[in-house]
Amino acid sequence: MVWTTGKQSIKTDKMRKPNFRFWNKNNNQMYTVDSIDYVGDEITVNDGFLICDEQAILMEYTGRMDVNGQNICEGDYNSDGYHCIYSIALASFIWINDNGDWCLFEMGTSYEINGDIYSNSNLPKNETN
User: b/e map of 97-107 (b: 16 or more CB within 10 Å)?
Assistant: First the structure.
């Protein structure tokens, strides 16, 4: 892949491929995203689940893994009680708790995922995500 910034080109082979999952609100199940389609104003995943009608909630993988080798994704809770969201203001994935306290992903820090805010009914849900 080649990125152009002004007069300078940067070539990289280390670009992370975006990966997603989605929560199906109709049957309360989590699915891996195989395809995302944009037709007019509609965004659908896996040939039929409408994102814009909120049948499904789309979540992106962060590109990082927890201590057990599990991919960390938006909506995942870590063992400290923080869940992962993408911050547009910081252009980064961050950890946030239900009190609004947050922290950045720290390099070299090991996290353990305990579940996600949708499929684990015993975990608190933050409706602002």
Answer: beeeeeeeeee
